[in-house]
From TrEMBL:
<keyword id="KW-0238">DNA-binding</keyword>
<dbReference type="InterPro" id="IPR020046">
    <property type="entry name" value="5-3_exonucl_a-hlix_arch_N"/>
</dbReference>
<keyword id="KW-0808">Transferase</keyword>
<dbReference type="InterPro" id="IPR019760">
    <property type="entry name" value="DNA-dir_DNA_pol_A_CS"/>
</dbReference>
<dbReference type="Pfam" id="PF01612">
    <property type="entry name" value="DNA_pol_A_exo1"/>
</dbReference>
<dbReference type="GO" id="GO:0006302">
    <property type="term" value="P:double-strand break repair"/>
</dbReference>
<keyword id="KW-0235">DNA replication</keyword>
<protein>
    <recommendedName>
        <fullName>DNA polymerase I</fullName>
        <ecNumber>2.7.7.7</ecNumber>
    </recommendedName>
</protein>
<dbReference type="InterPro" id="IPR002562">
    <property type="entry name" value="3'-5'_exonuclease_dom"/>
</dbReference>
<keyword id="KW-0269">Exonuclease</keyword>
<dbReference type="InterPro" id="IPR029060">
    <property type="entry name" value="PIN-like_dom_sf"/>
</dbReference>
<dbReference type="InterPro" id="IPR001098">
    <property type="entry name" value="DNA-dir_DNA_pol_A_palm_dom"/>
</dbReference>
<keyword id="KW-0239">DNA-directed DNA polymerase</keyword>
<feature type="domain" description="3'-5' exonuclease">
    <location>
        <begin position="337"/>
        <end position="534"/>
    </location>
</feature>
<keyword id="KW-0540">Nuclease</keyword>
<dbReference type="Pfam" id="PF02739">
    <property type="entry name" value="5_3_exonuc_N"/>
</dbReference>
<dbReference type="GO" id="GO:0008409">
    <property type="term" value="F:5'-3' exonuclease activity"/>
</dbReference>
Length: 948
């Protein structure tokens, strides 16, 4: 390299290795024509092109890691030991990224035994010594210790600068103290041990108090908190080792002098040849525009039409047209969002969507209740960065506070009826795939206007199919995870709390940016996630369970269920009167009045005034008074038992008797719950607003609430419930032959278990013995401990442990299943159901024993609960069509774990029951042949309680 003719003024140091990984995970899979993966190369090339075109730097270098083993591994042999190997699709891209750097004619540096971060630290020091300012192109937290005194960082994906204020926001200290904070809190990614029990917040607090690590360690005995104090004393040397690991070396004898990093012009022909060889047509086109006479020289262009296009999974509906090198993080693509206010513009967008064959869509409404909601606007996206917003229900902002918005002055909008008439053929077109996020809601909205949207993909369900349990499935969170992109938040445009004005009052330009971005991000997520479903062999779960369930659940939500208002009001009054009676009795037992609903006052009465044993104060200084504590105390005093009775009635009154009256829909006279399709890692549906899955059924008082759920005149409610489905699945999955045979014979499974485990005959068995066997049967599949079983059966933990030990001795297959399942989960981070659903459990390797044990218990149960969820979903999908084919008018209203509730004409009950049983009991076929029979119990009555 020739020496730079001038001293450096501004030096750009690009963290090449860090950016490769970010680009790889941010962009969807892309292959060039010969099949080589190039998505990280594309992201890297886009970044370099933008950087070189916009920077004022006169010196620039891309710094790479030479290898995973460095001098830090000699300091601590476990350093980065837990880091997984690079994904196979990324490995070939390391070499191509270096070729890209060469094609851009930018200096690149790497050095054996040192990390890229050490080279960056050294060049930063050299540049500052030469009087230059430094920009480190990275968002890596490990580099933040270098910020300050002429050194800043720049995140190219988020397009934001990182200075001392941003460092302090992240670490709670300035850059000069970052190393000390990292030494204390450690780094699980790099396996830097730190000090157990100390996180970033605590570490910052300590360093701000004591100044630096060594001062803190020398004064550790002064720390007031005993656990924190002991950890600092016991792990002082570990903290010092951690500091040595995280502190960057700035005195490396770099192989390339700073002077040789001068910015040099690229050879347009060579760069074009490289870009065209990868299939990066759009980027090559931009280079060609900037250098019109350039001719590719380095490599022959590849003209295959599918070059560098993401590999798409097969779809049973509409083909997904994905253009070359376009699916990129939002920060890297120009956003062209349009406000559609004329019919001509609307027709143009519809034509574009029809031509593309796939369109992302989203609705903006005036309510989260899909049954009551009215349209405010609709957004469409047809390509990354190309989206529009069609307002249909906006009012003037000045009228936002008025009760009657219909008369407010409206900004220019196409009439709603016109918009819907134009959109209906597109939204119902079988050749155009519609993509939504939480599309079930949007399906319902359009259904209320007479539009049946189909075919539909849902990016929330795609993400949940691939990574359930690993993270949340909200669009904002997914945008941050996959694209490292912060979306516009609803509250930022519509306000929140007292300042909430509703979306109808949001100015059109702000509404456009928010709503169009939603559709845009949805489209990008689809391009990223849909191909993975096929590659990762999750198509069965998504295409045969999750996707077809959407319209079924939407119809169920819209149907709702009738609630007897008068009965709820009667129950509310009854609960209230009895609460007063309990309150009087409690006050007598306490020797005076107090607020029963106050845990603090209750604790003082129990443990100070009455002197009951076992009182323990929490961090807030109040005694613990949860249900478990009161149950124990109830063995020795009447007051805790009466408080439990009072609490039960208070819960039933407020949560159900009173709340359900308010949730009766004024249009339909029914209650319409909402089901989350991605609310649980196991695939179970979750009911909200109101939650109808948590109504207590094991107590007489709780069952009274279900009596208020009734059928319409001339109909009955029919409950179809899988019997012991998780236990049956455990027998099948674990291969427990004795249990399988008992299920085949139709035996009393709990009595049989008691006979096998405790050696007593079934005939004349003590009911308590059967109860113990039942508790073990169900407890085992939830990973119950001896302590947990002891609490359930009111026996000693030692006795409970002996019961569990005897169970495992009689059924060793269940122990093998548990051990193998936990081992699989530790290796892979997830477990699978018999249908292939993945349930991720990131806590399985947690250093905290309690969190790790919780994940291990979840790992045991998740394949069983998840399979049960898959089975009932498969039944739900098949039932509407089968009922219709039989000429039956039964409507599915509710799903509560293993139970389905239908409203059935009284004249059709006899014909409906065998159809329900046949479909539900055969739901596994043809994918899985269970070694035990599924049994569905069906009941019918005019109320839900009597039907179940």
């Amino acid at each position: 390299m020739s020496e730079s003719p001038v001293a450096p003024r501004h030096v750009y140091l690009v963290d090449g290795s860090g950016f490769i990984f970010r680009a790889f995970h941010a962009l969807p899979p892309l292959n060039r024509a010969d099949g080589t993966p190039v998505n990280a190369v594309l992201g890297f090339s886009n970044m370099l092109y933008k950087l070189v075109g916009e920077t004022d730097a006169d010196h620039i270098a891309v710094i790479f890691d030479a290898s995973r083993i460095t001098f830090r591994n000699r300091l601590y042999d476990q350093y980065k030991a837990q880091r997984p190997e690079a994904p196979p699709e990324l490995i070939p891209q390391f070499r191509i990224v270096r070729e890209a750097t060469e094609a851009f004619n930018i200096a690149q540096v790497e050095m054996v035994d040192y990390e890229a971060d050490d080279l960056i630290a050294t060049y930063a020091r050299l540049a500052r010594a030469a009087g230059a300012i430094v920009t480190i192109v990275s968002s890596d937290k490990d580099l933040m210790q270098l910020v300050g005194d002429g050194v800043a960082m720049y995140d190219p994906l988020k397009q934001r600068a990182i200075g001392p204020d941003e460092v302090r926001e992240k670490f709670g200290v300035g850059p000069e103290q970052v190393v000390d904070v990292q030494a204390l809190c450690g780094d699980s990614v790099d396996n830097v041990p730190g000090v157990p029990g100390i996180g970033v917040k605590t570490a910052a607090e300590l360093i701000n108090t004591y100044g630096d690590l060594e001062t803190l360690l020398s004064r550790a005995p002064e720390i007031k908190q005993p656990k924190r104090r002991q950890s600092l004393i016991d792990f002082a040397e570990q903290a010092r080792i951690s500091r040595a690991l995280v502190e960057l070396k700035s005195d490396v004898e770099v192989p390339v002098p700073l002077a040789d990093l001068g910015l040099r012009p690229s050879d347009p022909g060579k760069l074009l040849g490289f870009l065209q060889a990868q299939g990066f047509r759009q980027l090559a086109s931009r280079v060609q525009t900037r250098h019109p006479g350039a001719v590719p020289t380095a490599a022959a262009p590849m003209a295959a039409p599918s070059e560098a296009a993401p590999s798409a999974a097969s779809s049973s509906v509409a083909p997904v047209a994905i253009a070359s090198d376009t699916p990129q993080p939002p920060a890297q693509v120009e956003k062209r969002y349009e406000l559609v206010q004329t019919e001509a513009d609307l027709d143009r967008w519809i034509a574009r969507a029809e031509a593309e064959g796939v369109v992302a869509f989203d609705t903006e409404t005036n309510s989260l209740d899909a049954v009551l909601a009215e349209l405010v606007g609709i957004s469409l996206a047809v390509a990354p960065g190309e989206a529009c917003y069609i307002p249909v229900g906006h009012v003037g902002e000045a009228a936002a506070g008025e009760l009657n918005l219909s008369g407010a002055e409206r900004p220019p909008q196409i009439p709603l009826d016109t918009v819907l008439a134009r959109l209906k053929p597109l939204l119902e077109a079988p050749a155009v795939l519609k993509v939504g996020h939480n599309a079930k809601y949007d399906i319902q909205i359009f259904r209320s206007y007479g539009i049946e949207v189909a075919p539909v993909d849902c990016t929330m369900l795609l993400a949940n199919t691939l990574e359930a349990g690993a993270h949340g499935m909200g669009m904002d969170e997914l945008a941050l995870i996959y694209f490292d992109y912060e979306t516009i938040k609803y509250k930022d445009v519509a306000g929140s709390g007292k300042s909430h004005k509703g979306f109808a009052a949001v100015p059109l330009e702000a509404a456009r940016d928010y709503a169009a971005e939603d559709a845009d991000i949805t489209l990008r997520l689809h391009r990223l996630l849909k191909p993975r479903v096929g590659r990762e062999r999750m198509a069965t779960v998504y295409e045969t369970i999750e996707r077809p369930l959407m319209p079924v659940v939407a119809a169920m939500e819209r149907a709702g269920i009738k609630v007897d208002r008068a009965e709820l009001l009667r129950l509310s009054a009854d609960f209230g009167e009895r609460m007063v009676d309990y309150e009087k009795e409690i006050h007598v037992l306490a020797g005076g009045p107090f607020n029963i609903g106050s845990p603090k006052q209750l604790g003082e009465v129990l443990f100070e005034k009455l002197g009951l044993p076992g009182g323990k104060k929490g961090k807030n200084g109040a005694y613990g008074t949860d249900a478990g504590i009161l149950e124990d105390l109830a063995q020795t005093h009447d007051l805790p038992r009466r408080v439990l009775d009072w609490r039960q009635l208070a819960k039933l009154k407020s949560t159900y008797a009173d709340a359900l009256v308010e949730q009766i829909n004024p249009k339909t006279g029914r209650v319409h719950t909402s089901y989350s399709l991605a609310g649980a890692a196991t695939g179970r549906l979750a009911s909200t607003d109101p939650n109808l899955q948590n109504i207590p059924v094991r107590t007489e008082e709780g069952r009274k609430i279900r009596r208020a759920f009734v059928s319409e005149p001339g109909h009955v409610l029919m409950s179809a419930d899988y019997s012991q489905i998780e236990l049956r699945l455990a027998a099948h999955v674990a291969g427990i032959e004795a249990l399988k045979q008992a299920f085949r014979n139709g035996d009393d499974i709990h009595a049989m278990t008691a006979s096998q485990v405790f050696g007593v005959p079934v005939e004349g068995m003590d009911p308590m013995v059967r109860r113990r066997a039942k508790a073990i049967n169900f407890g085992i599949i939830y990973g119950i401990s001896g302590f947990g079983l002891a609490q359930q059966l009111s026996i000693t933990p030692a006795e409970a442990s002996e019961f569990i030990k005897a169970y495992f001795q009689r059924f060793p297959e269940i122990r093998n299943y548990m051990d193998e399942t936990k081992a699989f989960c530790r290796e892979h981070g997830y477990v699978k159901t018999i249908f292939g659903r993945k349930c991720h459990l990131p806590g399985i390797k947690d250093s905290n024993p309690a969190r790790r044990a919780f994940s291990e218990r979840a790992a045991i149960n998740a394949p069983l609960q998840g399979a049960a969820a898959d089975i009932i979903k498969r039944a739900m999908i098949r039932l509407p069509a089968r009922l219709a084919a039989e000429g039956l008018k039964a409507r599915m209203l509710l799903q509560v774990h293993d139970e389905l509730v239908f409203e059935v004409p009284e004249s059709e009950t006899e014909r409906t029951i065998p159809v329900l049983k046949e479909v539900m009991e055969g739901a596994c076929a043809p994918v899985i042949e269970l070694s035990v029979p599924l049994v569905v119990e069906v009941g019918q009555a005019h109320s839900w309680d009597e039907a179940h």
